[in-house]
Design goal:
By secondary structure, this protein is of the alpha+beta class. The protein has 16 helices and 16 strands. Helix content is 41%, strand content 13%. Strands 2, 3, 4, 5, 8, 9, 12 and 13 form an eight-stranded antiparallel β-sheet that branches. A six-stranded antiparallel β-sheet has the order 11-10-7-6-1-14, with no helix packed on it.
Length: 634
């Protein structure tokens, strides 16, 4: 929505779809839009400085940390594009800033500043998880630190009443407030996007009926024998019951596949029949569909009935497969379905099936129940959702619940669905989140195909596989997502080796009683390092468990924590082994090195419109596909 706000402020009229590779028309002020996102991405630099100050960094170290963030080429190039990632970086940095500010006021519990930073943290967490689900890692970081704080209060002998006040404040601000921000972001999303779009078919029928120009909002509410209808499953991702003449079972060519199709298509239409089907929508008298009625569903395109087959489904060895079989002169007892109404949300009298508002189940005369599944048919089934007829008809799971989504019947007038359906924020938010999760999980890598944009999580800290961000022709403008190598390798060494060994060493010294630090020095070291190293771990390690496609920019939130930890470790080394007056010279030298390398790789950050072979001197590793990609040459 922030990107949409940038488009709105730039005067965009909403007609350009931003298709990949398309040329911006004159009326699209893409410079303003990119600048808007870039400003949001640039905020992480001052956030880094202020965060470090709250964590106990001196001014030289805090300045050095902010400069490290400023001079990273990968963070910079991502902020130059109209993407969600710069917004994620900003809110991630905001969350860390908020918690650091809150932790910095722990000695003033329940003061105005304490409450201010606690509320700011909660709002930031709501924003970061609303921008991308990766923001959940920031929520986890703050949650773990909060658990440690509360445990220390318990061990410290704080009174029960005081502990309850701390618990209550954190529950309200760090749990309830982020959830409220998350819900409000969807409320705003639904309010602003109140017209039909390219993805509305994934949403429930009641949601679509409230959209201004959606076809579902301009149709009858009544359904009767003879009506042509589409049937939607209440399991996200399944969609509408679909059949077509070319999609057949390989072991029985006479049976068509009846499955779930997410989109609206002509082959999703079925005609309601009792005995033999009617020859139109004008046959009197009108007979509505009541609870307990037996109906048949005749596929409009192929003139076959929806039938509970006699063979097993593809995904399991029990229950029955769903098919479209028979014809108007050859029917079967397995074509009859008993309607079991679950409920209806409209103010009209209950007891009959209405479009959109009535939830019901369909129980076959053989005793099984029409059920949607999460299983996908193989290539011969075009990868759509498998439907089955489950023998256990006593369940009321979401896969067994259906509703009429569209209806065609000239006997009935169009209804005003705004009087029949109400917006249900929680239901629509949960449904959309499940659709988002399903789409995200579908982004699986193809192990048999090499893609120049993908990389594995193990390679990220060491910058082994940078990413080309566009066409790589000699005359095209080339952007290369490559970080500042010195900063990436130094932060990787710090996060993967130096800090873990340092922590082990300090713990062993403490147990032996040979640690010469005071209690305040130990707390200062731990309070700063646990947040930075813990943030790096939580934003990086989970990607090893992901089965989806991964890209280098997924590491950038973790990099932010790593760069701050690098500055912290440099400060520690100077404080422990060098005179205090050397801190500024060391910081200036480190920033100068980072700045020099940043400038060296600037052509890839701000775009290079000449042949890439002119930059081969920047290919520090053989795996960098700056000019030559050895995988494409195979």
């Amino acid at each position: 929505m922030l990107i949409g706000l940038g488009e709105y402020l730039s005067g965009h009229n909403g007609t350009f779809t931003y298709a990949s590779g398309s040329v911006y028309p004159d009326y699209v002020n893409y410079v303003f839009q990119r600048s808007f996102v870039a400003v949001i991405g640039a905020l992480i630099v001052p956030f880094a400085y202020r965060t470090c100050r709250f964590l106990g960094f001196g001014r030289p170290a805090a300045t050095m940390a902010a400069a490290f963030v400023l001079f990273d080429n990968a963070l910079c190039v991502m902020s130059r594009f109209i993407l969600l990632d710069p917004i994620l970086f900003c809110f991630t940095a905001m969350s860390l800033l908020g918690y650091s500010g809150f932790a910095g006021h722990q000695h003033q519990p329940f003061s105005a500043a304490w409450w201010r930073w606690l509320v700011f943290t909660g709002v930031s967490l709501g924003c970061v998880i609303s921008s991308k689900w990766i923001g959940a890692f920031s929520v986890s970081l703050v949650g773990l630190c909060t658990v440690e704080e509360l445990a220390n209060m318990y061990r410290g002998g704080m009174s029960v009443r005081a502990q309850l006040k701390h618990w209550g404040a954190r529950i309200i601000c760090l749990i309830c407030l982020p959830l409220l921000v998350y819900l409000l972001s969807f409320q705003l999303h639904f309010t602003l996007l109140n017209r039909r779009g390219t993805g509305d078919y994934k949403m429930p029928s009641q949601f679509q009926a409230l959209q201004r120009n959606n076809i579902i909002a301009h149709q009858p509410h009544d359904v009767a024998v003879g009506s042509q209808i589409t049937l939607r499953s209440h399991m996200p991702g399944v969609g509408l019951i679909h059949a077509n003449a070319t999609n057949r079972f390989p072991d029985n060519a006479d049976e068509l596949v009846a499955a779930g199709m997410p989109g609206k298509q002509a082959n999703n239409w079925w005609q309601v029949a009792l005995g033999m089907p009617t020859k139109g929508n004008d046959t009197p008298p009108i007979r509505f569909i009541a609870d307990g009625d037996y109906i048949r569903l005749l596929h409009v395109g192929t003139k076959r009935f929806l039938r509970a087959g006699l063979a097993k489904p593809h995904s399991q060895n029990w229950d029955w497969r769903m098919v479209a079989a028979g014809n108007t002169s050859a029917s079967s007892v397995r074509d009859f379905w008993r309607v079991r109404i679950i409920d209806d949300v409209s103010p009209r009298p209950n007891g009959q099936v209405y479009a959109v508002t009535t939830r019901f189940q369909l129980i076959n005369r053989s005793g099984c129940i029409l059920t949607a599944t999460t299983a996908r048919l193989p290539r011969w089934g075009r990868g759509i959702s498998e439907l089955i007829c489950a023998k256990d008809n006593r369940t009321v799971g979401e896969g067994t619940i259906w509703n009429v989504e569209q209806v065609k019947d000239q006997r009935f007038k169009n209804a005003n669905y705004r009087k029949l359906v109400k917006r249900r924020l929680l239901r629509d938010t949960i449904w959309l989140n499940r659709e988002m999760a399903r789409s995200n999980n579908a982004l699986v890598p193809d192990s048999d195909r090499y893609k120049i944009t993908e990389s594995d999580a193990w390679s990220w800290p060491f910058l082994i596989y940078p990413m080309r961000m566009g066409a790589w022709k000699d005359d095209s403008i080339k952007y290369y997502e490559i970080g500042n190598p010195v900063l990436w390798w130094a932060s990787a060494l710090c996060c993967c080796v130096v800090y873990p060994l340092q922590l082990i060493y300090l713990v062993l010294q403490h147990r032996r009683g040979t640690l010469r630090w005071t209690g305040d020095e130990i707390r200062q070291f731990w309070n700063a390092s646990k947040v930075l190293w813990g943030g790096w771990v939580l934003h990086y390690i989970p990607f090893f468990l992901f089965g989806r496609v991964l890209y280098l920019h997924h590491y950038l939130p973790a990099l932010y924590f790593g760069l701050l930890l690098l500055a912290f470790e440099i400060q520690c080394v100077v404080r422990w082994y060098l005179p205090e007056r050397t801190m500024w010279p060391v910081a200036i030298a480190a920033v100068a090195i980072a700045g020099y390398v940043f400038v060296l790789f600037l052509p890839f950050t701000f775009g290079w419109d000449r042949p890439a072979k002119e930059l081969t001197h920047l290919q520090w590793l053989s795996t960098w596909n700056i000019f030559y990609d050895r995988h494409l040459a195979l």
